[in-house]
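User: I'm curious whether this sequence folds into something compact or stays loose and floppy. Could you predict its structure so I can see for myself?
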Amino acid sequence: MATTFKRKLVGTLTDMGLIEVVNETRGLATLAAPRVLIGNARYRLRGVTDGLPIPPSRLIYLVAGTYDIDWFLTLGRRGHKAICEALERNGLDATKFDAILDFGCGCGRVTRHFSKLDGVEIHGCDYNGRLVNWCAKSLTFADFSTNQLAPPLPYPDNKFDLAYALSVFTHWGQDFQFAWIDEMRRVIKPGGHLLMTTHGESYLPGLSSEERDSFNDDQLVVRRAHLAGKNICTTFYSEKYVRGHLTRGCEVVDFVPQGAKGNPTQDLYLLRFDGP
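Assistant: Here's the prediction. I'll summarize afterward.
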């Protein structure tokens, strides 16, 4: 009952255009916590051990849903670790890549952890130009671009050995998902890989009975599809749906339930593209 009420309340606030205000107010309450205030002040004074700039608090909130700098950095480290572990499990060596793309880079939460990868081009792109502009000015070891809600990306064919999309396909309806999988196929080299995360079975308790039925029937469940590309648009689907529909002919070489350590508790997939 409480979950149903919460879902209806979120829908009402969204329709009224107030949900982002409510969410940010909740985030500001977290910012007021003494632990966060003290921790943030220390980071602003001392910096980060990687020597790279810390994004403004507003941008951190946009990508992490919190103003807590330590949590933002922790999620980034975990996301990077999950990527590296998936590559290692599948015999892939990032040091031998020519180019890597952070698709949906935000303000560089994960991108920054590739700053020491010598000899490899690091690229990032995002739908939000404010995030991209900060990255371009602050994370100068990489190249950043702003993309539109729909393809194409500003990259040539067969550019990347690896693209990763952390909590990106989680915010599109079916048409956008299929379009972006096809675009990944274009920009990733034959034999290259896409690492992506999804809302899988761990999210079933928060779905309505009708949504759970659709999920268990291996259908795509989409909330607020009209807000595609924004966090408030959320999608849920089973492993069978991913393998049978979303991958569109590419090979699933790795699947780890709740394996997206930087985006708990999302599932992690590693796909290989073998050509057009």
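Summary: Confidence is low (pLDDT under 50) at residues 4-28. The first helix runs from residue 2 to 15.
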